[in-house]
Amino acid sequence: MSSEVLSLSELKVCLPQDVYNHLASPYDTDSDDDVSRVEKILESMKISPADTCCRVNLLQATVDEVVNALKGHLSLMDNDHKYIVQKHDTIRDMVTIRATCSHDDLYKCNVPPNADPLDEFSCWTNRSKKGWPMSHRSIIVDRFCGEAVLRGAQIFVKGILCADGGIKEGEEVAVYAHLSANSTPVPRGLLLENYLGKCVFLGIGKSNCNRSEYFSQETGVGVTMTKLAGPTLPPLNGILVGKIMLQNLPSAVVVHALDPQKGDVILDLCSAPGGKTSHIASLVSNDGLVIACEKGKKKMVQTREFFKSMGASCIVPIATDSTKLLLVDGAQNRLSPRQIVDSAAADQDGLMKVRGFYPESFDRILLDPPCSALGLRPKLQIDIKSLDELLKHAEYQKRFVRCAVPLLKSGGTMTYSTCTINPSENEEMVKFILSDFPCMKLVPISEDIPGLPALSGFGMSDEECSMMRRFDPSDKNIDSMGFFIAKLQKM
């Protein structure tokens, strides 16, 4: 048995056959050529979108201030990395950053820049004993660390699984990600010569410490990436804290679709880690009441601290099961959300102990429920094992819908969104809302918000499909994650 070393171009992101068939039917109907749309999406999933999107927190900065600050920060970087920083064409609080150069050679054939093509050790895969390069010592990180690296993150010591012996501080190393499916777990600290798994090349980095410190330290950056196999993304960790938030474009436009207004009482049913909730506070200038819910208390405490860092003072974080938030008893003497929050006691973590809210309490509701996350990029491996496992997500999401609709005021607005390409959680969920709740209707999303129409074939008219937004990872016009947004109003 030996190790298997792949380039990103060689890596195939696969789905179980029943899941593939489930997705292929609606997507291939939408395809305009002979290549399966699902295959295109899976190929696109391996790398990050080329644009880094920064959502400006208008509570603490202006867009012009952020653009100028980012230009100043990025201008100080190495000359090999040049970036274009500009305002988004239509999203007023969004700034985009794109590198003017990329290292496509690292993605396509894994040849180091400026390498002699006749050098027998120039390739990063399959050119030396067990596939490792002779020109560089190497490290292997876990898959989740690897996906973060392709998004522009540096390598923290906790993410390093194994490494060549003798690596020194300041040394340039080749970086790979371990693919865990159907392979034996890798004991942390393993010497690379004893690795027998399957991995994929990510790029080149500079070691910040000696090898022994990778595995003796609990915190800290172990390797700083210098060249990525994929789009070159700017390192922005710790930059303009409180003034910007890194968000994928579709994730940021959800709140613009909701269109919150000053003075609104708004509910976010699934808030953590808080990006969309804090966006609401930013757009209404803290003028209103935003209830942020999340089931896990630890998550909610962390999210509360994030809200504080963003200056989002209109948000009230609550640790609760949002599927059980609807109060049906004592409705004749019901209190408003503000009265409920003001009369609530705090628990030992400082979170308000709120049992729930009464019907028709909220002007706007943001519902971004837990989903299969089949739209996230980059994704080196998909963990869903079967169609039955995939379909369970939609059944869980219906529990949130059944709670959200009664809580919405007549005339109120709700957005429903997911970060998946699965129609069962997207178009079919909207059809479920319209069928089971005749009081709800689709309303158009502003033309300023980009995206494709919803997939057809789910019992909705072409006009209704055009009211929704679908983001396809393989779309050549919008390089983004997979995402879905629908806007509905209660009549």
Automatic annotation (TrEMBL):
One GO molecular-function entry: methyltransferase activity
SUPFAM superfamilies for the chain: PUA domain-like, S-adenosyl-L-methionine-dependent methyltransferases
Pfam families: Methyltr_RsmB-F, PUA
One example of a Gene Ontology biological process annotation: methylation
Entry annotated with the keyword DNA-binding: no
InterPro entries: MeTrfase_RsmB-F_NOP2_cat, MeTrfase_RsmB-F_NOP2_dom, PUA, PUA-like_sf, PUA_sf, RCMT, SAM-dependent_MTases_sf
Family designation: Belongs to the class I-like SAM-binding methyltransferase superfamily. RsmB/NOP family.
Name the UniProt record assigns to this protein: SAM-dependent MTase RsmB/NOP-type domain-containing protein
Species: Cyclotella atomus
Taxonomic path: Eukaryota, Sar, Stramenopiles, Ochrophyta, Bacillariophyta
